[in-house]
Write a structure and sequence with these properties.
single chain; mainly beta; Immunoglobulin-like; Jelly Rolls; 3 domains; 6-stranded antiparallel beta sheet; 4-stranded mixed beta sheet; 5 helices; 10% helix
Length: 398
């Protein structure tokens, strides 16, 4: 998938931003204290989560630096192995609520079976998505054991590939929902790894929670910006709630609604008077409005979600010219020369990504007066930190 973004900030060309920060319920981080081993081995060794098997092997001194010399070839056999990760943790009675408890993996790479206290909860087969499964029924007061068994991404599709009626371009990797660069590219060595590559935690909630929150720009003039807040609310029972929207702390809209068990979608229209526009690097200020959506029941806040929204119009100009048709952009009606780069993952092992590394590269691009980055399609759906930095970054004015 190709994703284009205007920088700085690198706000998406689509006029929507979606993420959420939960206020209701709680999260119990499960990121520390992990161990790993090769399937069938007896000895467990320390592992980092988020991370992957290649970085864990290197950290334990079991393999040399994958990027040094010809070590890429020396480590080739790792891609055919199965691996196991384990975490033993304790939960006090006060941490186990009477409502819902979900085990959440924001990223599993890729073919994984997840067990909690010997109960199979999940079979994962997609690196790019998050996974959430109810676990209150198997979570125990006191000692708990969480095990993730990874199957070789190469071996997992070997038989399917052999049975294909024709050979598809790209080889067996095209059968797996996994970052393509791991199989080798012109800029990337071949490391089809596995591991828990994004955060893992227990999510507790009761009554209802915001599962998704997005703000879409519907209209924009000098006098008014018309927007819509779109809620996805998961409820565990029928209940009446109030949905509220604020902009930079000021009330913008409110509605009363009835939720039913399961996923409920609601849309609330609101507006911003005399809107300030968002501009790309070099053309003006990166004005970002903070929009908050909140769910309340009987006057008590249940959950909330925050997004930052930049108001702007983006126009692709295609007009007849001597060569055929033009291809250029206008931002807020102003012709814009696009200067940018192709963004690939900042590390072959994504668990080593950090906000500091993102900021260094985004700041470097801004300093070079770039105003667009193309997120390369053979990588990953980037972290929110990347898009947040692109939304707000600009070079210092000369």
């Amino acid at each position: 998938m190709k994703r284009w973004a205007l920088v700085f900030p690198l706000a998406c060309v689509i006029l929507s931003i979606s993420c959420y920060v939960t206020d209701g319920g709680s999260r119990i981080d499960l990121g520390g204290g992990w161990e790993f081993r090769r399937a069938g081995a007896t000895e467990w060794r320390a592992a980092a989560v988020p991370g992957c098997v290649h970085t864990d092997l290197h950290a334990n001194g079991l393999v040399r630096d994958p990027f040094f010399g010809a070590n890429e070839e020396a480590l080739r056999s790792l891609e055919n192995e199965d691996w196991e990760y384990r975490k033993i943790f304790r939960i006090g009675a006060s941490r186990i609520p009477g409502g819902r408890v979900d085990l959440v993996f924001e990223g599993l790479d890729t073919y994984a079976s997840v067990y909690l206290n010997d109960s199979l909860l999940l079979e994962a087969d997609n690196m790019f998505r998050a996974w959430a499964v109810p676990c209150a029924g198997v979570l125990r007061e006191g000692r708990n054991e969480l095990v993730v068994r990874f199957r070789s991404p190469v071996e997992a599709v070997a038989k399917q590939w052999e049975g294909m009626p024709c050979e598809l371009p790209g080889g067996p990797r095209v059968l797996t929902r996994k970052a393509a660069y791991q199989y080798g590219w012109d800029w990337s060595p071949r490391f089809p790894t596995c591991g828990i590559w994004r955060p893992v935690y227990l999510r507790t909630w009761e009554g209802a929670r915001i599962a998704g929150f997005a703000v879409t720009q519907e209209a924009l003039t000098g006098e008014r910006a018309g927007l819509a807040a779109e809620f996805e609310i998961e409820a565990d029972d029928s209940m009446s709630v109030s949905l509220r929207v604020t902009v930079d702390g000021s009330p913008a809209a409110a509605v009363e609604t009835r939720l039913e068990p399961g996923l409920n979608r609601r849309r609330i229209e609101f507006s911003i008077a005399s809107p300030e526009l968002w501009w790309t690097n070099g053309l003006g200020r990166q004005r970002l409005y903070r929009v908050r959506g909140e769910v309340r029941a009987e006057g008590i806040g249940i959950d909330r979600a925050d997004v930052r929204v930049g108001l702007r119009t983006v126009e692709l100009v295609e007009e007849p010219d001597a060569a055929g048709r033009s291809f250029s952009f206008k931002l807020n009606g102003v012709p814009l020369y696009m200067k940018g780069a192709n963004w690939v993952p900042l590390d072959s092992f994504h668990g080593r990504a950090s906000r500091e590394r993102y900021e260094y590269l985004v700041a470097s691009a801004a300093g070079a007066r770039m105003n667009m980055l193309r997120v390369w399609g053979g990588g990953v759906y980037e972290d929110d930190a990347f898009y947040d930095l692109c939304d707000e970054y600009r070079s210092e004015e000369p």
